[in-house]
Amino acid sequence: MTYQNFSLKQLQTMDAAHHLHPFTDHKDLREAGTRIITRADGPFIYDSEGHELLDGMAGLWCVNVGYGRKELAEAAYRQMQELPYYNSFFRCTTATPVLLAQKLAQIAPEGISQVFYGSSGSESNDTALRLVRHYWALEGKPQKNIIISRHNAYHGSTVAGTSLGGMSAMHDQLGGAVPNIVHVMMPYAFELAMPGESDHEFGIRAAKAVEDAILEAGPDNVAAFIGEPIMGAGGVKIPPESYWPEVQRICRQYDVLLMLDEVITGYGRTGAWFASQSMGIQPDTITTAKALTSGYQPLSALLVGDRIAARLVESGGEFYHGYTYSGHPVACAVALANLEIIEREGLIERVRDDTGPYFRQVLTERLAGHGIVGQVRTFGLMGAIEIVKDRQTRERFPGDGAAAVVVRDHAIAGGMMMRATGDTMILSPPLIWTRETIDMAADRILRALDLAEADLRK
Ligand code: PMP
């Protein structure tokens, strides 16, 4: 039985009857009905009614090699036939997680050569939190367990992921976060820089907030700082260049570990394997997921720095943590094939040298001057468009994000899948986009902005 046996109406009825969607207002969804995506090819997705959409979000920031890669399906098929599952507990493992760990050690930033697997970014952030606290306990400093994060950060939706993240609406529904996590200001100059403050000065001030939090808690009580190199779900917030070097300097000064969440920025999106390499950051852990398999299989990998790994090995004693699917052989087989595609097709170099700069040029030249656009910013193939009522004062339209939803709805109706977070439109396309695809996206976004402006100024 396949979906073709059912009409859209039937699928929507079953969906409404039984399926609780993630991050969804269920009352609203059941009134509106669901769009059902049934197939995809290259940069395009298609719904059950045959509408073609250019996927500006690579699924959910993950389908970096684009859709329809038979090679990845074949890698999964071969592995499933040979060995669909075995675990990595009890002194066992399977071959593909071993090969993948070796590969990840090769491409990871210097000083990072170990991997702990999970099935999602959230799971790997749970691992990261437990691992850094365990590290300090092994160092004889169990009280050094506070983790500093940022407001509006997104680190996943498990209890630890939500606690690490800085989304207040998520915290409000948590009923008690994991203790000893504090949040400081985000490096978001567009809204938070003071009049006359340069980007550079703002970046230093935002980093100073990390130092203030360390000093307030006492450096002997602070285990780590965690951050996305570029905040993704929070609105593609690209920090000033001064921010990360200063955060890193501060972490070193107080012997605070630096945890990077590269669930979005990992595996080519910024024009390097990892944003830490694009930005010159040397972290102690890197959380990765999503594009590790280009979303073709659920898999995450926490990349662990040698300092932490050496302590685990030297001290010995069990680390009581792991998942049934840690190092799933099928997911790891697909990851290996996916990394091979990224390398063979030179997708990272293409983003760095060609499509990344072109993406910035086109979005800046064609969209930044639009009547409801307050700022355009990009980094590699990540982009943000700030929607404002007044370009001079950066005043927003009323309704707290409602304006961006108007833009998004016009974009989708016009064949452009993109996302709205707050008053920011965001883009994170597959790395296979060409100059032509970027032009096509700009055409469609411009049309959506025009239609939205007409609606919003009515
Ligand atoms: N960290 C970041 C930076 C993310 O963007 C996400 C997902 N969007 C996660 C963690 C959580 O990943 P997952 O949804 O796979 O649990």
Automatic annotation (TrEMBL):
GO CC, any one term: cytosol
Organism of this sequence: Aquamicrobium aerolatum DSM 21857
Record keyword Calcium present: no
Superkingdom of origin organism: Bacteria
NCBIfam families in alphabetical order: PRK07480.1
Protein name: Putrescine aminotransferase
Family, per entry: Belongs to the class-III pyridoxal-phosphate-dependent aminotransferase family.
Keywords associated with the record: Aminotransferase, Pyridoxal phosphate, Transferase
GO MF, one example: transaminase activity
